[in-house]
Design a protein that fits this description.
Layout lengths: L5 H4 L2 H6 L6 H36 L4 H24 L17 H24 L7 H30 L1 H11 L1 H13 L13
Helix pairs in contact: 3-4, 3-6, 3-7, 5-6
Length: 204
């Protein structure tokens, strides 16, 4: 197939006409979205664990070292992955990693709602049990724990789902603001070979 310039493959009209097809640019977009979502999710876990450490200073001091250590590990891994991502000139063109996470924001919110309902039901069942402690402190602790659980799933499900759902748009915006990435992709577009007709360079 005759090579085409990058601008041709970035055409919104061509993207709409080629919905459902796989291309090098679309693989790059999804891999880039997954990579960024992973970094942001790890930063979220870092903040979530740090907040737990702060809250439990006054309520459960024994938990603080574990939460603080987890926050440091999550932050360090996120920083390492972010640095690796910045060093790459272009995203990977390999098959995107398989994941059981929701691929749409609606799917993520559905999962979050199920978790919230299940956790609320469990908390209510515990409160209605014969040995339940219904003091103000216990109820406040239970509500706070419920909020932490729901917040964890909000970050864990919503961050990757939003990035995957908007992968192509986000990659298009990144190409527009990063001259080095655009230059590398322009060179790839000129030299890409699709002799077997299995994987075109575009559309995005």
């Amino acid at each position: 197939m005759e090579s085409r310039p990058l601008e041709y493959w970035l055409s919104p009209q061509l993207s709409q006409a080629g919905q459902g097809s796989t291309s090098v640019l679309r693989r790059m977009a999804l891999n880039d979205a997954q990579s960024r979502a992973t970094c942001l999710m790890l930063y979220f876990w870092c903040a979530w664990l740090a907040l737990i450490a702060v809250v439990t200073v006054f309520t459960a001091p024994g938990v603080v070292p574990y939460a603080a250590t987890g926050a440091l590990i999550a932050g360090a891994v996120a920083s390492a992955l972010s640095a690796r991502r910045r060093r790459r000139k272009t995203p990977s063109i390999g098959h995107p990693a398989s994941s059981r996470a929701p691929r749409t924001v609606r799917g993520a919110w559905t999962g979050i709602a199920l978790v919230a309902v299940g956790a609320s039901g469990l908390m209510l069942a515990l409160m209605l049990s014969e040995d339940a402690d219904l003091s103000a402190g216990s109820i406040a602790g239970g509500v706070l724990g419920l909020l932490f659980i729901v917040a964890l799933f909000v970050g864990t499900l919503l961050i990757p789902a939003w990035h995957i759902e908007n992968a192509e748009r986000l990659f298009r915006e990144r190409i527009g603001r990063e001259p080095e990435l655009r230059q590398a992709l322009e060179e790839m577009a000129r030299t890409h070979s699709d002799e077997g007709g299995r994987l075109q360079f575009g559309p995005l």
